Amino acid sequence: MKSKILLTAITAIILSGCVTNTVQEVSHTKGVQMGTLELYGISDDVTVYSKVNMHKKAQGSFNRFKHSAKGYYGAFAYSSSSTGAYAQSTGHNTLKSAREYALNYCSQHLKSGDANCKITAILTPKGYKNNGRGTLSKTATTELKKLKTYAKYNAFATNDVGHYYPVSGHKTQEVASSEAIRNCNVHAKADTPKIQKYYPCYLVNIHQ
């Protein structure tokens, strides 16, 4: 029986402990590019770069971000101008895209003459090391592990922002991969106007 799940990687629970392992990433459908994908456990670390005096609404959002159950990777951006623009991101597959997302969305709320938005805090997995390896969000990691237990043929597509689309139970691997990529990209493109950047989806190799 075919099953498919549409999820945006935004929800998880902060717990203690960290376990890392590695799998191989298959990047994009126009060829195979092998690289090491490092998976972390379900614990989060919050790093605050600097304490900023925020207006009440922004401070409330920042407090929720610091104690968020949504999980890594995330970033909080804020403008110290009178506008007090702010934005946050959680559940991204990379710290780079989490920072870009928060900055882009925050900048859309600036007025002429306002100070630029800056990242004031980040959310990473416990034990995170910036070693150049590919990563997944907390929820994407959980769903990938579940998918490995399902009947073939399966596929898992995701992008840096954290959209992902797992499918299982197809007649061929080609069909499974095509459906995962197609559906993941549909939702990635729908998010593009809001963040002013398109993050294409790619396949993760789950058969190892």
Q: Give the overall shape, derived from the CA principal axes.
A: elongated
What would the average pLDDT be, to the nearest integer?
79
Characterize the biggest β-sheet: 5 strands, antiparallel
Determine the number of helices (DSSP H or I, runs of at least 4 residues): 4
Properties at a glance:
208 residues; alpha+beta; 2 domains; 4 helices; 12 strands
Q: What would your notes on this structure say?
A:
With 208 residues, the protein is of the alpha+beta class. The protein has 2 domains: 3-41 and 132-204, no CATH class; 44-125, no CATH class. Helices cover 27% and strands 25% of the residues. The protein is built from 4 helices and 12 strands, in the order βββββαββαββαββαβ. Strands 1, 2, 10, 11 and 12 form a 5-stranded antiparallel beta sheet that branches. Strands 5-8-6-7 form a 4-stranded antiparallel beta sheet. Strand 10 and strand 11 (163-168) form a beta hairpin. The longest helix is centred in the last third of the chain and has 23 residues, at 173-195. The two termini are 23 Å apart.
